[in-house]
Amino acid sequence: MSGAALGLEIVFVFFLALFLLHRYGDFKKQHRLVIIATLLAWYLCFLIVFILPLDVSTTIYNRCKLAVNSSPAESNGSYVTLAPSKQKCFKPWSYIPDGIMPIFWRVVYWTSQFLTWILLPFMQSYARSGGFSITGKIKTALIENAIYYGTYLLIFGAFLIYVAVNPNFNLQWNQLQTIGIAAANTWGLFLLVLLLGYGLVEIPRSHWNGAKRGYLLMKTYFKAAKLMTEKADAEENLEDIMEEVRKVSESIKYNHPLRKCVDTILKKCPTEYQERMGRNMDDYEDFDERQNSYPSEKSLAKLHKQVIYSVQRHRRTQVQWQILLEQAFYLEDVAKNESSATRQFVHTFHSQEPENKIIQYFYTPTVEWYWECLLRPWFYRVLAVVLATFSVIVVWSECTFFSTKPVLSLFAVFIQLAERTYNYIYIEMACFLTIFFLSICVYSTVFRIRVFNYYYLASHHQTDAYSLLFSGMLFCRLTPPLCLNFLGLTHMDATISHKDTQPTAYTSIMGSMRVLSFIADGFYIYYPMLVVILCIATYFSLGTRCLNLLGFQQFMGDSEMTSDLIDEGKELIRREKRKRQRQEEGENRRREWKERYGNRDDSTRSRAVHTDQKESSFSETNASRPLSKYTRSNGRTERDRIELLQDAEPLDFNADSVNDDPLESDSGR
């Protein structure tokens, strides 16, 4: 089993990252380099989280071997026995041979740092560029990142000059490398505590509120009102951009040197706009530089960038609106079915996507009713209590992990108890659950936050390339300090435990933080305590209230603006529901007509064809008789059949407005 666990986790994490990227990205429309770079960044970060527990168990076994070698011992197969106490050091099932983990961590860490500081920022500018050639996009990306790269080079150069001039410093290359790692981890830890403080409170609270049907429905109405405003704004913005594209397309003719650029812009436009602009074009009219003023290539590149952004935003709002409608209809169905006497879940609308037969066989309407109306609320409440308990343990350990005598960090207590008995399975499970919960709190916040329309991770393949690359940058910058914080909570980091023991392979590539004592003994220890303040601020929704005061509408139960948006969203959902009901009724009537009169229409059509043949043969013998009457009657029958099939949808009306008096109705007409 040596190395098998490492190989299995490498494969599993790859498919996990691929699944998440497929959910948020679009493999068909987005550039392959964007997909590959984002997948590599996500994969490396998730891999660090999953492999670190194996590093901990291997380190504990190596410490046991060092303790055995320093005292009289007897070797016996897969374990080592101490002579005085007869203590056994069993080899863990997931043991990784010496020399593999340092190389593995070094490759993973430096690859992720190369991605987050050099490659991904460059690809962000490349993806947002409106250039029409690869050379133009690369040039734009280099210009935009010149300030970004120049700032870091200036700081690093000033630091090197200071070290070279000052005789008190005698730093080697390894120490300079450690200083660079410490600087990157310090920036990541600063952001990590902010995201962790939000996730520790918001994740348990969201699951607790998930058990409240009324709360979820009201929040869905609120989202519908906000999304409708964003959807209307996206449509208006797209119309304005398309109008500019139309003017440019009409001014730049077929033989203009920039016509290729215009054709590239037109390919990015929606299909209906392309057809509309194609009908109004006159490609046979030559251009005249003396009479018209034509846009430059730089202005066309800017327009190209605006077209890509507006089309992506319009498509995203359209898809999100349909998803939100399905969610609102389903929550309304759950509210109606809670009082059902038959205990069978009844849907207002049938699912538009074909259901899996296996799921449909086991997940019957009765099972769905018990799950949605009875079991699911209690499951969410129990899960929220468990998550809240984990959050309390994390907050307590973040505030006390620097204490070694006595050991106050609960995670360190759990690991040390298991280390005494060398229960490696328990050690790995405890480490995995701890770092997995920390990762969920941090990564879920990255998926939830939204910076206006510049950074937004939208599911159902609606995330743009810029947001995907930015998320990869955040993951690569947050994961190394997250792992160091985890090792500090469990006292596996010698800097925290103050013990002269063998460090983990992950800690060894980071170097000794004693080079910068004010960071190792100050910032790394006391800054995580701020998570308490952030948790309190998140619990009382201070950030939400501040955004609401600044004019950004947030869901708050005690706000008049929230109540108005809920009412507006409820009316929008009701309107869309009536619209879909009319569509389904029209489709049902058409289906009934086809089922009822389909055979009759076929027989009528065959009789009409037979009659036409007779009439044509009769006309050959007697050409003097007119056939216009038969033709008119046959055409009228065909028109009547078509009108019956093309049934119009009913209009909305109010029952109170219907007038039963025939005299008044006649006079009104």
TrEMBL record:
**Protein's cellular compartments:** Membrane
Q: Output compositional bias ranges, type Acidic residues.
A: 658-669
Q: Where is this region: Disordered?
A: 576-669
- Asked whether the UniProt record includes DNA repair among its keywords, one would answer no
Q: Where is the composition biased (Basic and acidic residues)?
A: 582-617, 635-644
Polar residues composition-biased segments: 618-634
Q: What Pfam families does the entry give?
A: LMBR1
* Magnesium recorded as keyword: no
Q: Which family does it belong to?
A: Belongs to the LIMR family.
This protein's name:
LMBD2 protein
| The species this protein was found in | Sterrhoptilus dennistouni
